[in-house]
Structures are given as C-alpha cells and as structure tokens.
Amino acid sequence: MSTDDTGFTGFKNELGTFTVRPLDPLRDAELLHRWVTHPKAAFWMMQDAKLQDVEREYMRIAADEHHHAHLGLHDGRPAFLMETYDPAHRELVGLYEPEPGDVGMHFLVAPTDTPLHGFTRSVITAVMAHLFADPATRRVVVEPDVSNKAVHALNEAVGFVPVREVEKPEKRALLSFCTRERFTAATGVDA
C-alpha cells in the first residue's frame, strides 16, 4: 500500500482494505453522478443533478484550497466519496467557533445491490483514520441533516459527540465533534 500526503496507508479489517485517492473531477464524474443521484443519496442534495452539474461541482472543489474531494476504494475498487473542508472558511463559517486543527468532513457510500454487513461503519472508520493520520488534525467536525438518524448512529459509533443544532442555508444540521482520543476509544483504532 502506498502512503498519501497525510501518512495514511489505508485501513484494513475483516471486510478488506480501504484506501483513498484524490478525486479526478472529469475522470470520476460519471461514477459520482450515479452515486449522488441515487435515491439512497438523498441527503447529498444532488438528486436532480446532470452529469455536467457534477463535473462543475467537483471542478469547483478541486480549485478550492479549503475544500477537497477523495475517492474511497475498497480492495482497490471505487466504493465511497470523502470530502474534507476547513470549517473556518467553508460550510460552518459563523455557525461555531473553529479551533486550530478542526477538519470538516462529508462521506457518501456508493449504492450497491449486494450490501455487506458492517460496510458503512468500516467506511466511516477508514475516513476517520485517514483524517487522523494527519498529525495536524485535532478534531473532526460534521454537520449532517438533523433527520439523518442513520448517520447520527454511525457518527456516534466512531466517537462523535453532538453539540447542537445549527441552521444552514440548505438544512437544519446537527453539529458534532470527534477528537482523536474519542475516535480511538470508540473504535480501538490508533489514530
């Protein structure tokens, strides 16, 4: 396995090996379009997006120094999308007081006709392990829709603590934080 710029070499468990690579907005757009417009991706808020909309959105992210997108791989095959952002500059500006080392995160698991028990939990664990592989990351910040109960349970399983609801332009969100120590305590994964 190769190491990326954070030092992350991948996360391995009984379901396989999870790695990430930078997203290529043009090469990966068709794949992402299938994922973000799937009915299970309703909270991604791109249900009606055209292929060109997806290309444009991920080109915008690629050009943004405060927002990054990665394609997640399961045993070398595309399986999830991970976005990171600097909450002092994107998504949560003015909604909370960011601290040094805060990193915002979104993730989306690819739709499948053959679900694997524990897969989504493995994905979020891999995402968090990737984020904490960077020694500069002190706390991960998320803001899922308050009605997305499934992701709240996943977040809790990897150590997130809900802080409060915040009103964003596109949704009412549950602001939650996870420190390196809470992640390790919740998952047993050294970060």
TrEMBL record:
Pathway: Siderophore biosynthesis; mycobactin biosynthesis. Residues 21-68 form the Acyltransferase MbtK/IucB-like conserved domain. Acyltransferase required for the direct transfer of medium- to long-chain fatty acyl moieties from a carrier protein (MbtL) on to the epsilon-amino group of lysine residue in the mycobactin core. This is Lysine N-acyltransferase MbtK. It comes from Streptomyces viridosporus T7A.
